């Protein structure tokens, strides 16, 4: 159909036709129950049944994430487990019909009870946070690309002139890659990574993961860490909360210890029309979450440290290339930016705000502009020392 853009869709079987084929030939009571289940999914997504079905056809990862989110919502409503399972089974049966008709070539794997429990707990934490990007299986790879790019650009994992490390805290640790590498570099250190979501299952013996939300305060005593590191949380901390959050980082740092912040500008320059369009979409979402959209955090990272009472505050700025033209750093960041744009477009697709065809074209033009415009991403690194006791 002219207006349907699901990647695997065949012309004669759009979402509306698929729903009709799925319901046809069933006993009236069963057809009514299935139709009610699809209507409930549409209400959850605040869209039409046709668009809700279309969102399930966008690919196995997108469909599974949508179904997991829906399962969490059913649990939040307090539905009986048997009712929730039936509604999810309806979606699996719908996609089985789509597979039989050649609309998709994959099967939907329903989430386990344990996965729903974990996702429900993460949802509670996310609702208390303001993180810009959605949870996604590929997010870990994207965060690791950022880590590799920054380490390559800085020449090391941190710039603060810290002495021997006993206890290290990495706030907003993501995949934990930074903290794990600190463990390799300093086998004698205990490194704690704090984040909203679980960390890696495998890690060095000196690494510990703690689930927590820095916006709700750090779950540690005063003055226990030699070095506190935080980076790229401009995408998760509302701009008004930055002074309080930095105060928390300083609180848990021991006298004589160091705090380091790493934060970027929100826009790379120069950019082409596709890049500007994607940035506008990103900043609109950031603004709705109270996040920085005008590079206030980039300009103020060293000021936050001074205001929190740190001494010997130092600020350095780095220009990171985006694109294959920029060597290893540029290659890492090109992959990172492409993944970030893909995550955002998937969210817009699932909400019916952007067709798969338009999203694919936008991302393709966005990638070409890396080489045509050679954009630079500016990143600031600021660090300072907590005054020794008695001073």
Characteristics of this structure?
seven-stranded mixed sheet; disordered N terminus; 391 residues; 7 strands; Rossmann fold; 2 domains; globular; 13 helices; single chain; alpha/beta
Characterize the structure shown.
- The protein is α/β, with parallel strands linked by helices and 391 residues long.
- The chain has two domains: 15-127; 139-385, Vaccinia Virus protein VP39 (Rossmann fold, 3-Layer(aba) Sandwich).
- The protein contains 13 helices and seven strands.
- It has helices at 15-23, 28-45, 49-56, 60-77, 81-100, 113-127, 139-154, 177-185, 242-251, 273-288, 296-307, 327-350, 356-373; strands at residues 167-171, 190-195, 207-211, 225-231, 253-264, 311-321, 376-385.
- The longest helix is centred in the last third of the chain and has 24 residues, at 327-350.
Short recap of the structure:
The protein has two domains: 113 residues; 247 residues, 3-Layer(aba) Sandwich (Rossmann fold), CATH 3.40.50. The chain has 13 helices and seven strands. Strands 3-2-1-4-5-7-6 form a seven-stranded mixed beta sheet, with helices on both faces.
